[in-house]
Amino acid sequence: MKFNDLLNSAGIKPEEVCVIRHHTSTRGKRFATLHDLWRGDPHGFERYQSTQKTKRQIFRKRKIWAAFVNPTPDETVFVGLFDAKLADTRKADWLCDYRGNEPGDGKPVDIFATSRRNELSDQIGILHVDWPAENKRTWARRADGLNLPLSTKQFAARIGPLTGEALVDELLDLGFSVTGATKKVKQLRRGELVIYVKREIKTRPLVIHPHYLELAEEFRALGGVDVPSPLKTYKNSNLRAFPAYYTDSRDSEGRHGFAIGIEAPCLRELVDLLDRGTKISTPDGEVRVIAPEDDPFTEYERLQAARVGQGEFRDALMIFWKSVCPVTGIDHAVLLRASHIKPWCEASNAERLDPFNGLLLSAHVDALFDRHLITFGDDGLIKISSMVSIANRARLGLDPTFRISGLNARHLPFLEHHRSRFQP
């Protein structure tokens, strides 16, 4: 079978297609090869591709570009179909994403507006062709004049556990992009899905959102996923897209995720499972994932954790209450807790994410509020349980005249629910 047969079966005429084979013997500034650029920075790759020397008719006249890159000198892999239209001819006002210099050495270039097409998208990173030896130096041809045979070579697939850069490479091939890096972890994203890869530690190197703890048995069922038993969270302050937690032992917030190991043959299936779990349905529509109530932290840490995906709930409360506890006036961020009024275990998914089901409370007030030893009236006035002794009230600085100012009408139904659990 030939590549043009695939184009015809997709309803695309080969005479409308320019076949581009991106390759160069010169190592790039940020990426070693153009294959690396495509995997590591898809936006940069498409911008690199869209900038061409002026008056090249093969690019100007062909409405569709079929792009290929070379992972190795004898390997040519398909990376997508693009609509292409000349947008401007001028000096580019950016640096080349591959070479790091000015495109066209600072001279005017043809700049094309390109957009990815859906046809053959299931073949991206998978389909290989045999580029003719007599055309090895040629990198742009008319598809109808270069009928590329599909490769019959068997490129070796990875086997065994994936770690470090090998895991990153496989994720890039699955459409992820590297969106951040520290000495300890790399952050990768594909759409809504954010994951981390430990850079030096080989034990369970893939770190996912703690929400996925509840899918642990489904991971084990894949057969090639190393899930800790008993389940436990992985703590690392570099996991900036994951929920926060606070403890007495640290001055700043920490972050936590769920670390697992993965065998190469199972990676695609695992990613598909993660994709299906990135959102949950609520009566108000889909929202991003949240961490489970019964995550395996200590009781103290669990009560303190920001339990909504990516800290959105805490962030909303910090904004609404201007980063100040409305009861005590404390404004030291690490001492403030995002407290649900209607408890997490009793709230719907929509209520768990509703900032009006929350108060920004200092740590000791949060502990009392969480255990229904204090509550608040609709006028904001504090009510203190008789179970808190007079001596402890004094030690805690509880004043019966404390009042929350700034309550919204939307807080009141949640406060009414909280008062129904209050221990007088």
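(ticket continues) Second input and output from the same batch:
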Amino acid sequence: MAVVGPVVVGVDAGGTASRAVVTDAAGVVLGRGTAGPGNPSAGGPPAARAVGSALRSALGSLDPASVAAGVVGVAGVSALADPAVAAAFAAEWRSLGLRCDMAVVGDAVTAFAAGGAWPSGAVLIAGTGAVAALVDGLEIARVADGLGWLLGDEGSGLWLGLQATRLAARRWSAPLARAVAAHAGAATPDDLVHWAGALPPFGALAPLVCELADAGDPDAAAIVADAASRLVATLDSLAAPATPVVLAGGLLVAGTPVRRGVLATLEARGTPVGTAGDPALGAARLASARRPVARSRPGGVPPG
């Protein structure tokens, strides 16, 4: 395959896995690689090795010195403020033989880039948690929610599961309650209370709630409608002007009733909407856009 112009790399350094992609200037994928967890907020300095391993696999036989720019998306980019973490990533770039600048950005930035070619706009993410962010280039200008399940993450998968469990504890005879009880293995309301007290992964109930809502269960439908409303409210709290919005995360990428609810509101407003694809490709798109300045800092040291 003929390589068009400079080569760039993009990485999604997630808490479960690290995924890297190499593309040419035309966006053609030249290689992919996967390794272990690469989120430095959770894994500390060793996360850099996972990211490096994914990149090494993606590069294959390509000369690392040919890489003109790279972008790595991580949750909790502030972890790079830890000198030990920053040093681990810098050492990894050197060991790979990269001579370009590797920018480390928040995963909301790469999610936004994975949903369209807009230079700025908003991203609304709803998976296990929920957060909205205003994105401008490589920067997150403003954030709403993302506060965790105790304080926020309203409309998220975990929030859906909690609402269903709360309803089940109060209205044991409801069809939704029976479905929740079956999931929890609870024969009585007391069993359910004990199950919930152990803080199980409530988000695992989200597919059940969505399925029942699609089947016409009124309680599940009400929870889903509330979730969509709360997610739009989170987006609105960014106080952004009319701007494109990228939807990301499992609840908003798949064909769930939550996605449909959010889409209905945004489309009624005339808001341009994109859906996030592969965040590693989003990172590569950002790297391609910034490659004219990529060689201004030799040695592959992350920007500080």
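Agent notes: The two ends are 36 Å apart (CA to CA). The chain is about 40% helix and 20% strand. Closing as not reproducible unless the customer responds.
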